[in-house]
Amino acid sequence: MLVKQKIRFCLRDAVATAQGKGDLPPVELPEIVIEHPQDAIHGDFACGLPLKLARSMSLPPMNIAHEIAKYLSLPAEIARFAIAKPGFINFTVQNTWLWNQVETILSEGESYGNLDLGKGMRIQVEFVSANPTGPLHVGHGRGAVLGSTLANVLSAAGYQVKTEYYLNDIGTQIDNFRQSLYARYLQSQGKNVALPEEGYMGDYMIALAEDICQEYGDKLLNMPEEKALLEIGQIGLEKILENIKEDLELLGVDFDVWFSEKTLYQEGQYNEAMAMLRNKSCVVEKENAVWIETSTLGEDKDNVLVRGDGSPTYFASDIAYHYDKFARRGFQRVIDIWGADHQGHVPRVKTAMAALGIDPAQLEVITYQLVTLRRGGEIVRLSKRSGDIVTLRELLEEVERDACRFIFLSRSADSQMDFDVELAKRKSADNPVYYVQYAHARIASILRLAEQKNIQYNQGDVSLLTSDPEMTLIRSLVLLPETVEIAATALQPHYLTYYAQDMATVFHSFYKQCRVISNDRALTQSRLKLVEATKIVLSKTLHLMGMSAPEEM
User: Fold this and answer.
1) pLDDT averaged over the chain?
2) 285, 293, 400, 424 — which has fewest CB within 10 A?
């Protein structure tokens, strides 16, 4: 259990005792929030519970704080507490506990920071899921990094996580793709044909058609058009999917499952889900279509499930897909990561889950905002190659994977993002990932020097670490488990980037003020233990973010 959780419990018990003895009124407790004071002089943890209780108890916050203090039974990790105006209770941890944490980090290695928050709960994270009708663009990169990092964090927090990419490989857009590609193929064979009105106009379709021409020649010309459309559509989808997988691999992203939309119809999930909705009288036929009456379930309007021509809508597929996740595959929790343009789709999917008898709270949807690409002060809108939007591949050819991941992750999903290409390429402390990785590489060089000098430090006494820079560094190290908890609970992995930068700053400050390898043998040994523990924590943080922890830079 984290120290802040123990403090929360001891405060709750103290209030309950004070209320039981009649020293405080019997009101319901609000959420007990434990924070870190901005100024270290106030201790390691702070709680403003007396301020929250002042109104409901009709008492001054300082009076409440003193009554709570009378019954506080401190956890072993806490050395002391103090009451501070206007109504805070501050806690300071034991130095012995901090020193023990250095030893704990060294013994646990990269498993340090792992939690049992999820208790093995089966959870699915679905992300990217771009239609396989074109290349991934920069915005998809943000979703990919967000999803893969969140999966890492949830795994570290004790969940059993599966990652998934949903392939929309049937439907109207796939039909348009086939017709567009076939038209481009015919054009490349010298035929004068027009593109379909709703077709894909990107230059990548020309390149794809030419690639198919080189590989298959005029083979498709000799087929009946209907068969040729199906054939070229399948070839094109496979080639684009291969490119998508290559792009994601370059970004350090892979998936446990690539789920085909087709299988929802081939394996019965669609029919099962629709039958359940009909049995619950949620489906009606009107206006030559089949509708789900979401207006009776809390939505503003009803939604079409099956069009007049008999083809299911994307919404119908989404219902069947989520039915498959929960009912067939038994995930206890599902997290979908979608672009901001899908925000309006969230409530109706949750409503449909409720209609199927699935608790909509089990489905959580994170929507991420757009990415604006910049070169310094100039906005980059178009691809140099094709004049279309900038593809993820183009960005990855210019900016290293780790820099891409760090910047994509550096802001909360609901914040607009400016991605400065020039900054991402910079090999200096201005580049946040370089700054963090350089701290790790610097530690690695210190440990190599110790090895060259044959300095053994396994028996080092960490209680010699008493200076402010040393204790500040230890205090930063022990925040990793808490950071994992916050990121996993709030589903906001960007907290890792803040933590990594703070850790690097604290270490660089320590390094400037404290000579690690010196003539003082005992102090050298203790500081080497501390820097090795720091290396472990930095490495774990970088790996959670899907980034490398370089030994040299």
Assistant:
1) 94
2) 285
Q: Answer yes or no: is pLDDT of 387 > 60.
A: no
Q: What strands, in cross-sheet order, belong to the sheet with 34-35?
A: 34-35, 45-47, 88-93, 78-84
Distance CA 182, CA 171 (A): 17
Q: What is the pLDDT of residues 440-479, one digit of tens each?
A: 999 999 999 999 999 999 999 999 999 999 999 999 999 9
Question: Where are the domains positioned within the chain?
Answer: 3-93, 107-117+429-544, 172-250
Second-level CATH architecture of 107-117+429-544: Orthogonal Bundle (1.10)
Rounded to 5, what percent of the chain is helix, strand, coil? 55, 15, 35
Radius of gyration of the chain from its Cα atoms, rounded to whole angstroms:
29
310: left (phi over 0), alpha (psi -120 to 50) or beta: left
Query: Among 66-75, 388-397, 438-447, which is the least confidently predicted range?
Result: 388-397
Q: Give 400's pLDDT tier (boundaries 50, 70, 90).
A: very high
Question: Which two structure tokens, joined as six digits, stand for 328?
Answer: 């067939």
Closest to 295 (Cα-Cα) out of 355, 375, 230: 355
Going by their DSSP bridges, the two strands 88-93 and 78-84 should be labelled as antiparallel
Retrieve residue 498's tokens: 């803040």
For residue 305, how many C-alpha atoms fall within 13 Å in the half-sphere facing its CB? 25
* CATH numeric code, 3-93: 3.30.1360.70
Cis peptide before 86 (omega within 30 of 0): yes
